[in-house]
Design a protein that fits this description.
5-stranded mixed sheet, 5-stranded antiparallel sheet
Length: about 300
């Protein structure tokens, strides 16, 4: 008696195919060029959400993986939002600011309305994250706003000489430097990724903030991937990937000593058992007849 044939629905087949490419005629010319050893990029694929108010810190503490800190103890840190099953929904970089800035409030807020936070997230996920945060707001005394492109832009810069002190321009009472109003701090995920910059009013950061030639966001993504840092839903599968599988424990996005937050149970259990069955790692493939790619980038 023959065994019954196994059938896959179209949705399942599509989900399997997204992990692999079916292109067989890939040539060397189609490969992305290696990023420069020093440079800067305007990350138009990133967006910002402002969260501020008396309960902002306590509110974010309960829904993110990292310990929420103020601008005095940590000027910038990586974190993530998980679902109840401990799967990654959104990977983010959080910038604490001392006071809610007038550019991010409608109408302008008072100075006693508490600290604020800028959440740096993938632009394709920014509206979903905004809705996710609103879902847990309930009675928390916080305000939120999606930052329009041009009101505040995210930049990055890197290079061998990129070692100035954090906050190259002293922060004003609004949390930004004058007259250029920029925030510049080392990327919290990996020192070799350089510095993260937020610039207001759509103006490029002043030249002392930047290094090397300007490159495209795609060129920066190649550099980031070569360093083993996944980012966004294209590399961290939404609602499916575990934090440790996505190297969020290696990029300081998880505080294993903090209290309860959404998705904590599985995250802590995985950490203490020490069993991580798979991880994202960078791999370079080349033909035997080709020159070996550099090991360091």
């Amino acid at each position: 008696m023959s065994s019954p044939r196994t059938r896959l629905c179209k949705a399942c087949l599509t989900s399997y195919r997204r992990y692999a490419s079916t292109r067989a005629n890939s040539t060397l010319s189609e490969r992305p060029p290696p990023p420069p050893s020093t440079g800067h990029a305007h990350l138009t694929n990133r967006a910002l959400i402002a969260v501020f108010g008396p309960d902002a810190a306590r509110f974010l503490q309960g829904i993110t993986t990292n310990n929420v800190r103020d601008s005095h103890s940590a000027p910038i840190y990586s974190s993530a939002f998980l679902n109840a099953k401990g799967r990654v929904l959104y990977d983010v970089i959080i910038h604490p600011i001392e006071h809610p800035v007038k550019y991010f409030s409608e109408p302008p807020v008072k100075r006693d309305e508490g600290p604020g936070f800028l959440i740096d997230v993938d632009r394709n996920q920014v509206k979903d994250l905004h809705a996710h945060i609103r879902k847990y707001k309930i009675r928390a005394k916080i305000k939120m706003r999606l930052i329009d492109a041009g009101d505040a832009d995210v930049w990055t810069t890197w290079g061998e000489q990129d070692n100035p002190d954090p906050g190259i321009y002293p922060a004003s009472e609004t949390g930004f430097a004058e007259p250029h109003r920029v925030l510049k701090y080392p990327d919290p995920r990996l020192p070799s990724l350089g510095h993260r910059i937020i610039s207001l009013d759509g103006d490029p950061p002043p030249p002392p903030c930047l290094h090397g030639p300007k490159v495209s966001p795609e060129s920066y993504d190649v550099r980031r991937i070569l360093h083993g840092i996944p980012q966004g839903a294209q590399q961290i599968i939404h609602g499916e990937a575990l934090p440790q599988e996505s190297n969020l424990d290696y990029t300081s996005a998880i505080d294993f000593r903090k209290g309860c937050y959404i998705g904590q149970e599985l995250t802590i259990r995985t950490h203490h058992t020490g069993i991580v069955r798979k991880r994202l790692l960078p791999v370079q493939l080349y033909l035997a007849s080709e020159e070996r790619p550099p090991e360091k980038m």
